């Protein structure tokens, strides 16, 4: 059992946990080992053959145990984000709500960055589950524009409960320690969107499409934060417009790669800035 298990096991819900049995390892003359369990309530002894597990199995169990605790704390922390933001305060409150000491927030070295990352991963998984149920019969293009539009729009709507705090979350993601996770979840998102929309390309267009969708998503994310229209219809229209622009660029590349090169480089540079959250709406 790891130190973390011992500490959390004794402190959970603010009280120590007492074990009813004490185990003592002994060796017999035949060279085999066993455990004698002593029941303090009865003056009897039971001999049980010892079970042996490898150190790697112990490590896996400890890792799984710790990951489950982290996930539980992060999930409980989200309810406090509207009030205390993507912060250590939310993590402490989440730990308390999960039945652990508030100091357990020390499990998250990146603080609010770990909470933002958890939220992004969870939303991406929910979007994938939703896209799997969307009809595919009308998918004629390699990457159907309407499918991509719906996917980006639905993903943005998942931010709605935390919309007022999301600018801070975007700023947190640009910190050096958080950039790798930010890019990983963004690229995972656009790859899932392209894949479930029917994209099975293995050529250079595979990269072009995903970079394009990433740029559209980040630009739409910025626009969404300023959108006060009913049902965020302005955001949906913005997404559709950006997708049309991307289709025009792709058409230009296919027809005249040399002539389209300057525009493509400019678009790629803008996309890179969008992915890092550097661009802002004017």
From TrEMBL:
Ubiquinone biosynthesis protein COQ9 HTH domain segment(s): 66-96
Pathway: Cofactor biosynthesis; ubiquinone biosynthesis
Keyword Cytoplasm on entry: no
Keyword terms, alphabetized: Lipid-binding, Mitochondrion, Transit peptide, Ubiquinone, Ubiquinone biosynthesis
Residues that span the membrane, as ranges: none
Keyword Cell cycle attached: no
Subcellular location: Mitochondrion
GO CC entries: mitochondrial inner membrane
Region (Disordered): 29-63
Highest taxon above the source species: Eukaryota
Ranges of residues in domain COQ9 C-terminal: 180-247
A molecular function (GO) term: lipid binding
Gene Ontology process terms (BP): ubiquinone biosynthetic process
Ranges of compositional bias, category Polar residues: 29-38
Family affiliation: Belongs to the COQ9 family.
Protein function: Membrane-associated protein that warps the membrane surface to access and bind aromatic isoprenes with high specificity, including ubiquinone (CoQ) isoprene intermediates and presents them directly to Coq7, therefore facilitating the Coq7-mediated hydroxylase step. Participates in the biosynthesis of coenzyme Q, also named ubiquinone, an essential lipid-soluble electron transporter for aerobic cellular respiration.
NCBIfam families named among the record's database cross-references: diverge_rpsU (TIGR02396)
Name the UniProt record assigns to this protein: Ubiquinone biosynthesis protein
């Amino acid at each position: 059992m790891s130190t973390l298990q011992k500490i959390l096991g004794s402190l959970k819900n603010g009280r120590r946990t007492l074990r009813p049995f004490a185990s003592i390892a002994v060796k017999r003359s035949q060279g085999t080992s066993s455990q004698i369990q002593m029941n303090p309530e009865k003056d009897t002894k039971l001999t049980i053959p010892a079970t042996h597990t490898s150190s790697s199995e112990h490590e896996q169990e400890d890792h799984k145990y710790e990951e489950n605790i982290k996930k539980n704390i992060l999930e409980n922390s989200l309810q406090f984000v509207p009030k205390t933001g993507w912060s250590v305060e939310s993590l402490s409150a989440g730990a308390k709500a999960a039945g652990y000491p508030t100091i357990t927030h020390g499990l998250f070295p990146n603080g609010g960055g770990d909470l933002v990352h958890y939220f992004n991963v969870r939303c991406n998984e929910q979007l994938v589950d939703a896209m799997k149920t969307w009809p595919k019969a009308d998918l004629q293009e390699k990457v159907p524009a309407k499918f991509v539009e719906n996917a980006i729009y639905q993903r943005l709507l998942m931010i709605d409960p935390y919309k007022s705090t999301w600018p801070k979350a975007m700023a947190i993601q640009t910190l050096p320690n958080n950039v790798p996770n930010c890019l990983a979840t963004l690229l995972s998102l656009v790859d899932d969107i392209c894949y479930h929309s029917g994209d099975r390309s293995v050529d250079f267009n595979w990269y072009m499409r995903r970079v394009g969708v990433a740029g559209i998503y980040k630009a739409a994310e910025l626009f969404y934060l300023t959108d006060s229209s009913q049902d965020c219809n302005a955001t949906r229209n913005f997404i559709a417009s950006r997708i049309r622009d991307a289709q025009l660029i792709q058409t230009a590349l296919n027809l005249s790669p040399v002539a389209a090169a300057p525009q493509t480089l400019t678009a790629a540079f803008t996309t890179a800035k969008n992915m890092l959250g550097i661009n802002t709406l004017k």
